[in-house]
C-alpha cells in the first residue's frame, strides 16, 4: 500500500508542485486547499498526469476542520504517513513600529497556529502507527542569520514555525516521526527554485527512518536556523 501524504495550501504555487513530486514518488496525495474549485482543478490536472491525488477542502485557520480532515483521511486511506505544512500568507508591508496587531494575528493564525493545528491533528495517528514525517515549509525570512527589517508579521510567524519544528522534533525523538523545516532556494517566480523546493519537500516527506530530525533545509542541503 502506498504512503499517504497530506499537503496544505496546494491549489497553486509551491504546494501544487509538492503534490506533483509526491505523486511521482509513488505517494497517494491528499491535496488540500481552501478554495474548492481551485483545489479540485489542481487535483484533476495531477490525476491526468497519472498521479494518485484526491482533493479535500481545508482552511488551516479552522482547527476543527483540520481535525475532521485528518480523521477522514484515516477512514478513507487507513494511514497518514506525511504532513506537508505549506499553506501560508504574507500580508504585511508596514514596519514593526506601525504593524497592526490584526495583521500579526492573521499571519500567526495561518502560518504558525495553522501549521501547529495540522501537526496536532495528524500526530495521534502517526504516534499510533510509529511512523510519520512532518515537513514545515518555512522561509529564509524566518531564519535568524537573515532576520532584518521588512515583513515583520511574516518573519515572526516563520521564526515561530522554525521554533515549533525544533521543539516538536525533540518531543517525538524516541518515536519514528521525523519533523523538519525547509525553505526555497529562490523566488517562487523561478520554476527551477519551485521544482527544487518541491523535490526537497518530497524528500523530507519520504525520509528513511534514520533520516534527519529537527533540521532546516534548502535544496536538500542543511542550513542554519
Ligand atoms: N514565494 C516565495 O518566494 C517563498 C519563499 C520562501 C518560502 N515560501 C513559503 O512557501 C510556501 C508556499 O509559498 P507560495 O510561494 O507557493 O505561496 P502562495 O502562492 O501564496 O501559496 C500559498 C498557498 O497557501 C494557501 N493558503 C493561504 N491561507 C490558507 C489557509 N488559511 N488555509 C489553507 N490554505 C491557505 C493559499 O491558498 P489560496 O490559493 O486560497 O490563496 C495558497 O495556495 C509558503 O509556506 C511560503 O511561506 C515562499
Structural class: alpha/beta
List the strand order in the largest sheet.
3-2-1-4-5-6-7-8
Q: What is the C-level CATH assignment?
A: Alpha Beta
Please indicate the count of domains.
Answer: 1
Percent of residues in helices: 40-55%
How far from one another are the termini?
A: 36 Å
Order of helices and strands: EHEHEHEHEHEHEE
Supply database-style keywords.
about 220 residues; alpha/beta; Rossmann fold; eight-stranded mixed β-sheet; 6 helices; 8 strands; about 15% strand; globular; binds NADP nicotinamide-adenine-dinucleotide phosphate
What does this 3D model show about the protein?
Helix 4 (101-129) packs parallel to helix 5. It is globular and about 50 Å long. It has one domain: Rossmann fold, CATH 3.40.50.720. With 225 residues, it is an alpha/beta fold. The chain is built from six helices and eight strands, in the order E-H-E-H-E-H-E-H-E-H-E-H-E-E. It has helices at residues 13-24, 36-48, 63-77, 101-129, 152-171, 191-205; strands spanning 4-7, 28-33, 53-57, 82-85, 132-137, 177-183, 216-218, 221-223. The chain binds NADP nicotinamide-adenine-dinucleotide phosphate.
Amino acid at each position: 500500500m502506498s504512503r499517504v501524504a497530506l499537503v496544505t495550501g496546494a491549489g497553486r504555487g509551491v504546494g501544487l508542485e509538492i503534490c506533483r513530486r509526491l505523486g511521482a514518488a509513488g505517494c497517494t496525495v491528499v491535496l488540500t486547499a481552501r478554495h474548492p474549485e481551485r483545489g479540485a482543478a489542481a487535483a484533476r490536472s495531477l490525476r491526468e498526469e497519472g498521479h494518485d491525488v484526491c482533493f479535500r477542502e481545508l482552511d488551516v485557520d479552522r482547527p476543527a476542520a483540520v481535525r475532521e480532515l485528518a480523521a477522514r483521511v484515516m477512514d478513507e486511506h487507513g494511514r497518514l504517513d506525511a504532513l506537508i505544512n505549506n499553506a501560508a500568507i504574507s500580508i504585511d508591508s508596514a514596519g514593526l513600529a506601525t504593524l497592526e496587531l490584526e495583521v500579526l494575528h492573521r499571519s500567526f493564525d495561518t502560518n504558525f497556529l495553522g501549521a501547529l493545528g495540522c501537526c496536532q491533528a495528524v500526530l495521534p495517528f502517526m504516534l499510533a502507527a510509529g511512523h510519520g514525517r512532518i515537513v514545515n515549509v518555512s522561509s529564509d525570512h524566518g531564519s535568524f542569520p537573515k532576520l532584518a527589517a521588512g515583513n515583520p508579521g511574516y518573519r515572526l510567524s516563520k521564526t515561530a514555525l522554525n521554533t515549533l519544528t525544533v521543539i516538536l522534533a525533540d518531543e517525538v525523538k524516541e518515536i519514528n516521526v521525523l519533523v523538519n523545516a525547509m525553505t526555497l532556494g529562490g523566488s517562487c517566480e523561478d520554476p527551477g527554485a519551485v521544482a527544487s523546493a518541491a523535490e526537497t519537500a518530497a524528500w523530507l516527506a519520504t525520509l528513511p527512518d534514520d533520516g534527519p530530525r529537527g533540521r532546516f533545509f534548502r535544496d536538500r542541503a542543511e542550513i542554519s536556523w
